[in-house]
Amino acid sequence: MAIVTGASSGIGGAVARALGAAGIGVALVARRRASLEHVAEEIVAAGGQAEVIAADLREPEAAREVVASAVARLGRLDILVNSAGVARYSPVIDGDSEDWQEMWGINVLALARLSREAIASFPEGGGHVLHLGSLSGHRVPPGGGFYAATKFAVRAHAEALRFELRARGDKTRVTCVSPGFVHTPLAEEYLQGAGKTLESLGYEALQPEDVARCVLHALTSPASVEVNDILVRPAGQKT
Ligand SMILES: NC(=O)c1ccc[n+]([C@@H]2O[C@H](COP(=O)([O-])OP(=O)(O)OC[C@H]3O[C@@H](n4cnc5c(N)ncnc54)[C@H](OP(=O)(O)O)[C@@H]3O)[C@@H](O)[C@H]2O)c1
């Protein structure tokens, strides 16, 4: 069974559908219950298994409750996909600290708490933790400084987790998938802050399904293979 956060929209929704189609039971996590139920209905209609867990992952207790509820409803937990995230166009020189707090709370702290809880619940032979990082975790775009700081932290978390797991002899694999612009509400909101739109970029953004394919590649690789990082840009992206 897999837990997918951010499953009410964008990349998380596409990953949940792809996992459901691959025959893996999925626990769908986000705040908007109606949107989660819509994704769950699609997965079930295609012959898959899905359960909805509505939660605000900024709440410190949410990670423990989400993992317990997913295991109670779908059985053994093997995979955690951390896709829940927010991106505000917020510079570090004069950005708004509420935006910073929201980004840090969901992009970093919620991801770290859920990873800890999932690892404690994985089977003896290990599981798989997959983070949605970003191209902004590889280079800093002008104006999006604080978002980039959270995404550099996501990659650092993945690396730290991998080495701590290895030191313990735990075979759990850790992957970070880092896309450039993807056609989702998050990208639209971020670009709006810069006075731009997805259409004004001058190239076609990735589709959530393009990223879901990268995620599935990492998750379905043989147990002896750990895909550490996937960096994927739209073919036309210049920066
Ligand atoms: N789109 C891009 O261009 C792009 C590029 C690089 C990386 N990424 C990363 O990819 C991931 C997914 O983004 P997306 O583009 O798919 O965005 P999206 O379509 O806006 O989805 C974001 C998801 O995060 C969930 N979420 C936000 N705050 C939450 C909270 N407090 N508690 C629980 N869930 C919460 C939202 O659900 P609710 O609102 O229902 O809670 C939603 O399902 C993010 O980590 C993002 O940083 C995106």
Short description:
This protein has about 240 residues and is of the alpha/beta class. About 45% of the residues lie in helices and about 15% in strands. It has a single domain (about 1-230), classed as Rossmann fold.
Describe the structure.
The structure is a single chain. With 239 residues, the chain is an alpha/beta fold. It has a single domain, classed as NAD(P)-binding Rossmann-like Domain (Rossmann fold, 3-Layer(aba) Sandwich). It contains seven helices and seven strands; from the N terminus they run βαβαβαβαβαβααβ. A seven-stranded parallel beta sheet has the order 3-2-1-4-5-6-7, with helices on both faces. β5 (128-132), α5 and β6 form a beta-alpha-beta unit. α1 (10-21) packs across α7 (208-219) and α4 (97-121) packs parallel to α5. The longest helix is centred in the middle third of the chain and has 25 residues, at 97-121. It binds NADP nicotinamide-adenine-dinucleotide phosphate. Residues 5-6, 8-12, 30-32, 35, 56-58, 83-87, 106, 132, 134, 179, 181-182, 184-187 line the site of NADP nicotinamide-adenine-dinucleotide phosphate.
Strand and helix layout:
Layout: E1 2-5, H1 10-21, E2 26-30, H2 33-45, E3 50-54, H3 62-74, E4 79-82, H4 97-121, E5 128-132, H5 145-168, E6 173-179, H6 185-193, H7 208-219, E7 229-232
Parallel strand pairs: 1-2, 1-4, 2-3, 4-5, 5-6, 6-7
Helix pairs in contact: 1-2, 1-7, 3-4, 4-5
The site of NADP nicotinamide-adenine-dinucleotide phosphate (NAP) has 29 residues, from helix 1 and helix 6.
